[in-house]
Amino acid sequence: MKRQFVDGEQRIGSDEKLSKIEVVENRSSEPTVSDLVDGGVHLVKVACLGAEANDRAIDGTVPSALSLFELIRAILPSASIHFNYCIDPQWVLRQYAPRRLRQCPITFVVGSRHLDALRSAVPPPLAANVRCVGVPLPFAYGTHHAKLSLFESEDGRALHVVVGTANLVPEDWGAKTQAFYHARGKFAMAAKKAKGDAVAVTANAIVSSGGTTTTALTSAVAAETAFVEQQSVTASTSTEGRQQQRFRDDLVAYLRAAYPPSAGEVHRTVQFWVERIEQADFSHIKDRIVASVPGRFQRSATDGAASCRFGHLRLRRLLSEAFSAEERQRHKTFVGQFSSVGSLGARPEAWLCDEFLTSLSGGRSMISASSLKLIYPSVENVRRSLEGYAAGLSLPYSSQTHQKQTYLKQFLHQWRSDRLKRHFQLAHFPPQMTKIG
Prior knowledge:
By secondary structure, this protein is α/β, with parallel strands linked by helices. The chain has 3 domains: about 1-190 and about 240-295, 2-Layer Sandwich (Endonuclease, Chain A), CATH 3.30.870; about 190-235; about 310-435, Endonuclease Chain A (Endonuclease, Chain A), CATH 3.30.870.10. It has helices at about 50-55, 70-75, 90-95, 115-120, 170-175, 190-210, 215-235, 245-260, 265-280, 310-320, 325-330, 350-360, 380-385, 400-405; strands at about 40-45, 75-85, 105-110, 130-135, 150-155, 160-165, 180-185, 280, 330-335, 370-375, 410-415, 430-435. Strands 1, 2, 3, 4, 5, 6, 7 and 8 form an 8-stranded mixed sheet that branches. A 4-stranded mixed sheet has the order 11-10-9-12. Helix 8 (about 245-260) runs antiparallel to helix 9 (about 265-280). The protein is globular. About 30% of the residues are buried. Residues about 5-30 and about 200-235 have low confidence and may be disordered.
């Protein structure tokens, strides 16, 4: 059974283990933007697990885990938009602190079937600045399963992109192993304002004190040089800079495809954010976005690339570009992790060990099925998790579907996280990994 939209209440069962799942809004700390890895992944904080599971690793390989409250407090957004499957608006709005942040424009985007429930759950005092929009789906069995948030910082200097794994509900942010990717793009106008402020301060210093003239002029030259460098990066988007903005282009391509003009209101809402994204500089981000959009895609002889814009075929293409044929031959193990299972075909060769495994390998063929390792929780994993059996609501896989593909058991492996002390906190994120050697 797929978990349904929740309004203001926490609907995860009556098991006594729920007492462990309190989401602690750590107001004693003052997170800043420097706590966020730019172009990196954070685990989501689970307060009841303690420091070992949440603090930055001694060797620096694992950043500190952060709660949604800490993420928002670090960014201090003046406007934000959240795309998700399941949203508890009352809980989300409580994460906006200080209180002034709740008065800024906040938009929630969900599938159209969940729109009425979402709107009715928004607290009336905040309804004026909270906007809820629905996404029409082209298929009756489809879902709007995006996990994306965009924030414009309060100082107007940057746009923050957060691609996560969690629904915007307290149990997802407090009882499971979740993660989010964060990237920050500076606006060109922010650099111009910084340059103008620096020159103004310099002029005042020259007038007020002749003894500081040399230092002030030096600062002015440094500010001017920094601004020229920033301008050159921004201007380069029309030439070789396009190659440096691939992350930004990936994000814009997804938003335009997932929320086209035919989608109506949600398209108009998203278009504002597309324009803001295009004004931000993400040239320092080398990561790529592999997104999925609903639709039927066929590869044609004239435009084979069209079918490779999204989904696992997109992953295949990017891996083939990132690694040489010789390097791809050295990849021996391919790991997939997921929280739901659909129909994969009557035989492993129907899709799993054919199309999917080929994409994980970057286009290689004739790969041994034994190289594919899939991670999915067992019944015992669920029973011993923080939520107990209630956690199974987040793991849809019907027995009827399984009876048609029992071969899947030979690929399944259990989740373990002894190093980060998260063994009993179910993983709800779907990374795909390749092991060399």
